[in-house]
Amino acid sequence: MNVLVIGSGGREHALCWSIAASPLLEKLWCAPGNPGIAAVATCVDIAALDIVALVAFAQDNAIDLVIPGPEAPLVAGITDAMEAAGIACFGPTAAAAQLEGSKSFTKGITDAVSIPTALWERFEDAASARAFIRRRGAPIVVKADGLTAGKGVVVATTEDEAMAAIDAMMDQQVFGASGAAVVIEECLVGEEVSLFALCDGEDALVLGSARDYKRVGDGDTGPNTGGMGAFTPVTNFPPVLEQACLEQIIRPALKEMVRRGTPFRGILYAGLMLAEDGAKLIEFNVRFGDPECQVLLLRLKSDLLSAFQAACEGELRNFDLRWHDTAAIAVVMAARGYPDAPEQGSVIRGLDHAARPGVEIFCAGAAAGPDAALLAAGGRVLTVCATGPTLASAHDLVYAAIDAIQWTEGFCRLDIGAGAA
Ligand code: AMP
Ligand code: GLY
Question: Which segment of 203-212, 365-374, 388-397 scores lowest on mean pLDDT?
């Protein structure tokens, strides 16, 4: 098969790394890719959102399967455009990508099929939103209804904080049209876990689950980021609970999407809160998480390309996934100043010294520098990953590899997997 992966992050490097090992693969392309991806795929200089150019490239190069990594091209309709051109694309249509693109759309699905989630209400005017907050009191969660690059959620511990969120989103419109409506939710308490399911429209298979670390600083402090680390498996979310959530959360959502005439195919990522009275859905995303993808693929024994092909053909019913009996951990190395203003252009050396059995280093916001060095060219720059027989061994291995990397202008969290290891 000729395959085109779309994106340029550590997630897409891991996807390319895994697909490059597939016996089904003939030629692998990645648009736009990065210097790490260039070692396993041919990078093409087309932006992930340039759908017209991507379709033309896929046609000219006899691409058999397109695999978009990030949500933006999915929400913008890349799957619809590829399929209209007769090219298979593993990802949801724009209509099905609403599961990530609109919080109230997802809440409508959860209500229609009784998926356990936080009680909620949607408001289009600030006065009713404020009255609701006064009635319910704190803690309470205020969310902009549209896409806000992960910044539109305020978990308010006081009523004043919740009111300030309404001021910002609805009066000052800091998120533009995405905050014109808000969803206000009950505050859930518990441990968070991310569940990933491979979906073919009708059926779904668990691809694994992971704990991720969204805050920039050790001990979950500082601003939210795209993700600073992850590990899998999660001890208090064993396979029996994964299967229960597949039945109670993923499958009912798929069924409702079919009923609405917009079946979901692709990766459905459920952000869950393990509350005292059971797992509850916080949100859906319509793609792999980054860096969760990296750890999931390190544990996957089955051929990823065959799995994507089966999902595209609606054949998951007869498919079976297998995993290595290991733990995997990912630590993101970011440029100083991330997430607000990452410093660009610093030199990263020593990646060859960091290489050792059980370690994989995936590249994200980096450019090729002199003498096999890399230059920081983004916020999240590397994902350093390790596998081992236990999480503790993977934890020790990943930080040993990080110690060998020479990059004084970079930083990482030092507590990924620590509490659980
Ligand atoms: P979201 O963008 O919806 O994933 O929300 C971002 C983060 O806010 C989540 O990962 C949770 O940590 C937190 N959060 C969202 N909704 C709730 C809720 N109803 N109760 C408690 N925390 C929440
Ligand atoms: N790491 C969280 C995400 O990809 O959304």
Answer: 365-374
